[in-house]
Design goal:
The structure holds 2 protein chains of 2 kinds. Chain A has helices at 10-18, 20-30, 42-50, 72-79, 81-95, 112-126, 146-153, 182-193, 224-231, 260-264, 284-298, 304-321, 327-343, 347-351, 354-362, 365-368; strands at 58-63, 99-104, 131-136, 177-181, 201-208, 214-219, 238-242, 249-251, 274-279. Chain A is an alpha/beta fold. In chain A, the strands form 2 sheets. A 5-stranded mixed sheet of chain A has the order 6-5-9-7-8. A 4-stranded parallel sheet of chain A has the order 3-2-1-4, with helices on both faces. Chain A is globular. The relative contact order of chain A is 0.12. Chain B folds into 2 domains: 3-47; 59-144, Glutaredoxin, CATH 3.40.30. In chain B, strand 3 and strand 4 (120-122) form a beta hairpin. Chain B is globular. The chains are: A alpha/beta, B alpha+beta. The interface between A and B is large, with 58 and 39 residues.
Chain lengths: 372, 145
């Protein structure tokens, strides 16, 4: 796997030899984009922070991987931590950062000790005079959002904040702050060192009703049929795929490719390439209930549309399940989901109705059969 | 010590590691030591589901409730746990051994259904496996007593 290639501090050595500007140009040329799901060009983000005149800059590594169905960062932290930490060192060198934070989700606390050991080992070997502190996330999904992660590290509730200002301009303690996720920083080390590093190879977290769930690498544009040939649907057939909780639910169209264009066409988002396959025998309403419970539980409560709306969506879905709903309720559910998405403050609220909207579009019969 | 060395979440987690949970008294002491209003600290503690303000069982079980686990019949595990331990989600057994919670996702979706027991992942669960785990913990403690 490309993600398992080690760089043995050669990437840092190269960055120091060629200098900040050349290293940034290589990352630009290689087309490295953020792997947390938003695909923002990494070097562009770094330049934004570098353009702010400041004696202090911070780097946050977002290891708060919480999107249900996603486990790629856990795989990297466990299987290639050295290259990941080297990515932090390279970023710290290029960004002239003296202090970095790894925001490690509480559910991955079992990886913390090993990670701390590897960090001190690599800091010693590299002779970098920087500090890398692990911040112990404590079970709040919203803290993976970039303004919430900043609040959380500064000792406040992890509430999302209004943007702008963007963290690259005004982040931790008012200083320019770059936030990259685990996979992105690992790719930084690899892209800089390996000439044959391929930006189109992506990690896919596959789970659900398949015989071989797991982490796979495929190129962007891989056909859904290729994925299914590998992971094998349980009982021979799957009817739907859910892109985590936030990315929507669409039917399994075997000839379709996994690319931004083809997935967006279905009003879905592939995000960080998390695919949960749903078996032929499962009810989509049940899946929507499970996802809505997640949003109700994880809304930070700051903005009204998300705080109240996620509960209303869940209650409407329960009403449908309990055969108490009428056709108008389905229309209301659609309007409500759209309204919440349009008026919420951050990405969580803006995506909390995607599963309902896409599922009602593609699998309306799974809802209608429960109407009274 | 600069402002970026005082990470409140880490301090709170260390208190919890040591005492099992964060009591009101401990929170008051921390508030004075850090010079942070207790209301703000309380806000941080009750925002995070993994920070607890009440005495917990010796073994904290956090069952994954992600769609991947639900598709892999985690509800059966949930029902089994509730019945076997005779408690509901969020409660602690009367013998003080087990507390059970549900989490959004623990990132073990390829090995669903899964749970954390005192932060260690247990995966590919069946009711038989969970029964064995519970019995092991019960036996280990009855021997000691």
């Amino acid at each position: 796997m490309q993600i398992l290639r080690e760089t043995k501090l050669e990437s840092l050595k190269k960055a120091k030899e060629i200098g900040r500007e050349s290293a940034l140009q290589i990352l630009e040329k290689k087309g490295l984009v953020g792997r947390g799901g938003a695909a923002f060009p990494t070097a562009k983000k770094w330049r934004m922070a570098l353009n702010v005149k400041s004696k202090t800059r911070y780097l946050i590594c977002n290891a708060d991987e919480g999107e249900p169905g996603t486990f790629k960062d856990r795989f990297i932290l466990k299987n290639n931590p050295e290259t990941f930490i080297e990515g932090i060192l390279v970023a710290a060198f290029i960004l002239d950062v003296k202090k970095c934070f790894i925001y490690l989700r509480g559910e991955y606390n079992f990886l913390r000790k090993d990670l701390e050991e590897k960090i001190s080992e690599l800091l010693k070997k590299s002779k970098m005079k920087i500090k890398i502190d692990i911040v112990r996330g404590s079970g709040a999904y919203i803290c993976g959002e970039e303004t919430a992660i900043i609040q959380s590290i500064m000792g406040f509730r992890g509430n999302a904040m209004q943007k702008p200002p963007y963290p690259t301009i005004k982040g931790l303690w008012g200083k320019p702050t770059v936030i990259n996720n685990v996979e992105t920083l690992t790719c930084v080390a690899q892209a800089l060192f390996y000439n044959d590093w391929n930006p189109n190879i992506r990690l896919f977290s596959i789970s659900g009703d398949v015989e071989h769930p797991g982490l796979y690498e495929w190129e962007l544009g891989v056909k859904i049929s290729t994925i299914l040939d590998t992971v094998k649907p349980e009982n021979g057939k799957v009817k739907a795929m859910s892109f985590g909780c936030f990315g929507g639910i669409m039917p399994v169209k075997k000839t379709e490719a996994i690319s931004s264009e083809s997935i967006c066409k279905n009003n879905c988002h592939h995000g960080a390439f998390t695919i949960i396959f749903i078996g032929e025998d499962k009810n989509i309403l049940d899946m929507c209930l499970s996802i809505s419970k997640f949003y109700t539980y994880e809304s930070c409560g700051k903005c009204t549309p998300c705080r109240e709306g996620t509960i209303r969506i869940l209650n409407l879905l329960k009403k449908i399940r309990d055969k108490r709903a009428i056709k108008e309720d389905l229309n209301f559910l659609k309007d409500l989901a759209n309204h919440i998405q349009e008026t919420s403050l951050c990405g969580l609220g803006q995506s909390c109705g995607n599963h309902v909207l896409t599922a009602m579009n593609f699998f309306r019969e799974d809802f209608e059969k429960f109407l009274k | 010590m600069g402002e970026d060395d005082k990470i409140v979440l880490n301090i709170l987690n260390e208190i919890q590691d040591k005492h099992g949970y964060i009591s009101e008294n401990l929170l008051k002491q921390t508030s004075e030591q850090l010079n942070i209003p207790i209301a703000r600290l309380w806000g941080v503690v009750n925002f995070h589901t993994m920070l607890r303000t009440k005495k917990q069982g010796k073994y904290i079980i956090e069952l994954c409730g992600s769609p991947s686990c639900v598709l892999s019949e985690s509800r059966e595990i949930e029902n089994f746990l509730k019945k076997e331990l005779n408690i509901d989600i969020g409660e602690t057994t009367t013998d003080g051994l087990f507390s059970v919670y549900k989490t959004s996702c623990i990132g073990c979706c390829n090995e669903a259904p899964a749970m954390l027991l005192n932060n260690e992942p247990y995966t590919n669960l069946t009711t038989d496996i969970v029964k064995k785990i519970i019995e092991e913990k019960r036996n280990a403690n009855s021997k000691r007593n």
